[in-house]
Design brief:
The chain is α+β, with helices and mostly antiparallel strands. The chain is about 50% helix and about 20% strand. β5 and β6 form a beta hairpin. The longest helix has 28 residues, at about 175-200. The relative contact order is 0.13.
Amino acid sequence: MDTNMKIPSFWSRVSAFLIDLVILSIIGYIFGIGFESYLSSIGNYALLFGMIITLFYFTIFNSKIFKGQTIGKKLVNVEVVDKNGNFISLAQSLYRSLILIVPYFTVNIKVPGIEYSSFLDLLIKIVLTLLIIGVIVFYIFNKGNRQSLHDILAGTYVISTVRQEEYFPMPKVKKLSVYIFYILTFFLIGFSFYNYRIAITQYKTLMTISKKLQDINGVINASVSKNLSTFYGEKKSTTKSYNVSLTLAKIPNRISDVEDMSIVKKGVDIILKNETNIDSLDIISVTVNSGFNLGIAKKFKSYTIRKNPADWKKLID
């Protein structure tokens, strides 16, 4: 296909995207502050609101309604068109935006009815992660026409607003980008399944505790991890810590009040009763946080309390 469309430089498109992100972050933060209480109460599901805002922005502006230009694209003189150089319809722009945006906003959201860390949950995360990787890999390595994955699937191009005088064949998708994507897909799937097998056997207790913490009334999200820290000084020393993160709808303004929260005490009590190697731990660290994350803007307040298991037992008793 001969065309006079001019493919912009790598950094032109990146610059446009960064400008759009700044605009979206401002919109998102204003929205977040206006609905802070509600957004804080729904945890990661607040990301869906950020997704809707972002989808609306890119779908409308990249379509023929605004001549294929978001504010960022307009400032750097690039535009979205189809293979014939025409501005794309609203439906085509929506399809393109869905591929680009949905994976980023949903990869860390629990799907209702699907158990967290289950095999099906793993498969969904792999697919979403591959779409994210594809967008990045094809844009970086597909140097001929700079089509990213969402452009390839939607049949679109991002071009300069200035056309060339001469016509020339439009470069095809570089095979290197395809090969790199296949290689990364192979490693991601292999690594994910390997980690999943380890998690089932070695991290079964952690997963059980995490689920019990999640079931505490008032806890929106919960996560746990174990860490071994090594310090080198005059004498080498190691510290075994158990880290807990609890996301709540609201937390007190003083850390002294956080210690007395029943949710914190219930969470630590679950750890003390279910962790088989509790006596080997040096520190149990509990972080409570509250706020919202829209993906394009976030606001959080958090406190961390670190005590050894013996001191936690005294506090609970």
